[in-house]
Design brief:
Number of strands: 17
Largest sheet: 3 strands, mixed
Helix content: 10-25%
Strand content: 15-25%
Strand order of the largest sheet: 2-1-17
Shape: globular
Order of helices and strands: HEHHHEEEHEEHEEEHEEEEHEEHEE
Distance between the termini: 47 Å
């Protein structure tokens, strides 16, 4: 037996919550980004007129007038993280126009701008998620060199069951529920699917929203996989087109959670949060840039998509001055940065990152 086989390894992956001091992070790329397919599971989360335009442009590379400004901002963001002493890893650049498929369907890709969606870090484990968008089926391949490096150095690396993504997973009669109608989702319970960005971590407790990319089977798969050492609590969202929790509900520090007043009824949060301080997000500043409003894949509450550096410091989009003032009033130290033009690729600071290592231990923060 070699020394290598018996030598204890300290995993380079260790992150239990959203606020312990940040040491290492993955930041996405938009190189090779391609306008996503017009599959119903994609189109159901954007306005009807935008879905029609997307259908016409599907498969084409994002134009330079969108990518250049976003590239500039994300590089500045990376520079900010490194100036704070944080190690930054980046995925490989990929041409997402390349087609791929299974025996049941074919597609082209999208982009690897948002590692938060395709991978979930729980302690020393990275879990590749079973995403519902066919155009994102092989997205984690661009992170494989990073994942293999982490695994060789002692991390646990898991992949949830690859979904079939056949028509049986999607409700062919789906329509977005109107205000006052019972909530419904495009996903059936044919197989487990979920995006990691529908989950928030607070030590031994995780919070999730069911959405148009995360079904009950997906939530149950993760619950069984993690076992009795963790609890998963569902957060009910009033959003009519729910996708991802990180513009709805964000634990920022022990006992403090930021909530979206449009999507969340603060009087109906899980009982385990009864002792927590609920911070209600202020109304976001409007986006005046017409092109950005037309091309954004995200709603107005992207102002909430912040990244905690530690329990006090929080990276916030510079445009959203109301959010910065509110965070200061709640005892945080906002660090302003530009990332407004990342929205056409799927998000802002929280979406664009995956915190791989934070200096902390596994604890329970709820009653």
């Amino acid at each position: 037996m070699t020394d290598d086989a018996v030598e204890p390894r300290v995993s380079p992956v260790s992150s239990h919550n959203e606020w312990d001091p940040l040491e290492e992070i993955i930041v996405g790329r938009i190189d090779g980004a391609t306008i996503p397919s017009n599959h119903p599971v994609v189109a159901c989360n954007i306005p009807t007129w935008a879905a029609r335009l997307q259908g016409l442009a599907s498969g084409f590379a994002y134009p330079k007038f969108l990518t250049e400004k976003a590239q500039e901002e994300v590089e500045q963001f990376v520079g900010l993280l490194e100036s704070l002493g944080i190690t930054v890893r980046r995925p490989d650049a990929v041409d997402h126009k390349a087609s791929f498929g299974t025996p049941d369907w074919s597609s082209h890709g999208f982009c690897n701008a948002c590692p938060r969606d395709s991978m979930l870090v729980i302690g020393d484990e990275i879990i590749e998620t079973p995403m519902a968008w066919p155009c994102r089926y092989f997205e984690t391949h661009s992170y494989r060199e990073i994942l293999k490096d982490y695994f060789r150095r002692g991390a646990r690396w898991t992949a949830a069951p690859k979904p079939q993504l056949t028509d049986a997973l999607f409700d062919k009669d789906f329509s977005v529920p109107a205000d006052g109608e019972p909530m419904r989702y495009i996903l059936t319970e044919f197989e487990p699917v979920f995006d990691a960005a529908d989950f928030m971590r607070a030590g031994r407790d995780l919070f999730v929203t069911r959405s148009n990319v995360t079904n009950r089977m997906g939530i149950e798969w993760l619950r069984r996989h993690l076992g009795p050492g963790y609890r998963i609590h569902e957060i009910e969202s009033r959003c009519r087109m729910p996708m991802h929790i990180d513009t709805t509900f964000l634990p920022l520090a022990p006992g403090k959670v930021l909530v979206n007043p449009e999507y969340i009824d603060v009087h109906h949060l899980p009982d385990v949060l009864s002792s927590w301080e609920v911070l209600v997000a202020p109304e976001p500043e409007p986006i005046d840039e017409r092109l950005l409003k037309l091309t954004s894949m995200c709603g107005k509450w992207l102002s909430m998509n912040v990244l905690m550096v530690d329990e006090k410091r929080v990276i916030v989009e510079r445009h959203h001055t109301g959010m910065m003032r509110a965070l200061e009033g709640w005892g945080f130290e906002p660090v302003p940065c530009d990332l407004l033009h990342y929205a056409p690729f799927g998000g802002s600071f929280h979406c664009a990152t995956l915190d791989v290592r934070r200096d902390g231990t596994l604890e329970s923060y709820v009653d």
